[in-house]
Amino acid sequence: MDHIGLFNHLIQHLLERQLNVVCFDLPGHGLSTGRPGYILDYGEYVGVLELVINISREMFSAPLHAVGQSMGGAVLLKHLIRHKKDYPFASLNLFAPLLFPRGWNINRWLHLLSKPFTDTSKRVYRDSSWDKDFLTFVRDCDPLQASRLPLAWVGALKKWIKEFRKSEGSNLKINLIQGDADKTLDWETNLVKFKEKFPALKVHIIKSGNHHLVNEIKSLREEIFAALEL
To answer: Residue 211: which domain range?
Structure first.
């Protein structure tokens, strides 16, 4: 449910490192068109990513680097798995990439039971950062936040997990940054699965880091951004 307006800390950090920054809202997020949060397959997100890559290649001659958080990380991994040759990125940095959410075994059954009766569920706002001002803004003040979660999004997540399990993975280098206080993801299980598929994976564990790493408190953000490899 994020959008580019929440990534100001990361964008500013990248600009200070003298990088051109290209970013976009996924369909149904932020200022992009589409039903809020609605998607049938994350492949639609990958298609938009590929359009952005093509535009970026036309605009810039320098190497491209990718940074994604949570679902953005899942989209980048899905793109990587599909991309057998001519991979466009010189580096791939993932903040707490999405695979199994916490409580997935229960939630996927709730999804099946709910489908005949409703196509959305009330959104639950978890404490995804230690920055209380950020949490208050997202819950109470952000006009671009969706208050309902389409069940189709959960179905698309199930498809992503199934595709990931069946994939061959990749030997390309990946830099993964993960907080050990993440209450949104089953991150320990995810790391095991990622290491099985990506033998060149490099992992940075951020002590006390919650899920929304790019919007953590300043002291943690400095360590988080220092772990980027660009």
So the answer is: 4-226
Mean pLDDT of the chain: 92
Residue with tokens 């790493």: 213
Give the per-residue SS3 of the chain.
CCCHHHCHHHHHHHHHCCCCCCCCCCCCCCCCCCCCCCCCCCHHHHHHHHHHHHHHHHHCCCCEEEEEECHHHHHHHHHHHHCCCCCCEEEEEEECCCCCECCHHHHHHHHHHHCCCCCEEECCCCCCCCCHHHHHHHHHHCCCCCCEEEHHHHHHHHHHHHHHHHCCCCCCCEEEEEECCCCCECHHHHHHHHHHHCCCEEEEEECCCCCCHHHCCHHHHHHHHHCCCC
Higher pLDDT, 31 or 108: 31
Q: How far apart are CA 132 and CA 40, in angstroms?
A: 33
| CATH number for the domain that contains residue 112 | 3.40.50.1820
Closest CA to 96 of 36, 173, 176: 176
The pLDDT of residue 126 is: 86
Total of domains in the chain: 1
What is the reported pTM?
Answer: 0.92
**Side-chain-side CA neighbours of residue 21 (13 Å):** 17
Greater pLDDT, 116 or 220: 220
pLDDT at 118: 64
Q: How confident is the model at residue 37 (pLDDT cuts 50, 70, 90)?
A: confident
